[in-house]
Design goal:
Blueprint: H1 21-33, H2 39-42, H3 63-74, H4 89-94, H5 99-105, H6 112-129, H7 142-160, H8 162-178, H9 199-209
């Protein structure tokens, strides 16, 4: 996501979007245990009368920033990864999945192609998360909710460009076929029955999806 769209895709504050189970039961405790974050960086703190007017309060980390800190701790030799929190799929669903209404309300009409590709990446990511079930993840109750979200975003994308949406889903399914025993993306996202494109076309399209604008 280009930095120029940061203000229009910024995640909501915690008072508008409270942290979920992942942050509360896993990320926050682990970041505190490792000394990677202060309590004031994980949740808004009550007003302190001892704080002066000019005292700067720590900014509460977003979910993406929490994940990045944990990632840096686990893989300290990786230096080239940049993370920019973005709230796109969630905002789309807040508008009932109406892509046109979403981009118009956020003044993103000129960048709708970037937003559309971001949503396609989100669909692919949902397909990858389903593999955690195969890796022995004990609690997979969240998969049903993930399927519903992925289906809603897929429906929204198909309303904008059905051919591109189906191509990227089919591309993900074929990529999963390369690894023996890997869960196919179609287990989460139902791909259409008909053949959509040749393998070369899918590969070319997939490469374009990941290009930054």
């Amino acid at each position: 996501m280009p930095s120029s769209l940061r203000s229009q895709t910024r995640p909501p504050r915690q008072d508008q979007l409270p942290p979920g189970p992942l942050a509360q039961t896993r990320l926050d405790p682990e970041l505190l245990r490792r000394g990677l974050a202060l309590p004031s960086e994980l949740a808004p703190q009550p007003d302190d009368d001892d704080c002066g007017y000019w005292d700067e309060r720590p900014r509460v980390l977003t979910l993406a920033e929490k994940l990045k800190r944990l990632f840096d701790s686990e893989l300290p030799r990786v230096h080239s990864l940049r993370v920019q929190p973005a709230w796109v799929a969630g905002e789309l669903l807040r508008f009932g999945g109406d892509f046109d209404k979403y981009v118009r309300s956020r003044d993103l009409i000129k960048q709708e192609g970037i937003i559309f590709r971001h949503l396609l990446r989100f669909i692919l990511l949902c397909g990858e998360f389903v593999q955690l079930q195969e890796l022995g993840e004990p609690d997979t109750s969240w998969l049903d909710e993930l399927r519903q979200i992925a289906d809603q975003v897929t429906t929204s994308c198909r309303a904008v460009d059905p051919q591109s949406t189906d191509k990227i889903i089919e591309s993900a399914r074929r990529a999963a076929d390369v690894v023996t025993g890997e869960t196919q993306a179609e287990d989460l996202l139902e791909a259409p029955d008909e053949d959509l494109a040749e393998a070369a076309e899918l590969e070319e399209f997939g490469a374009g999806v990941w290009d930054e604008q």
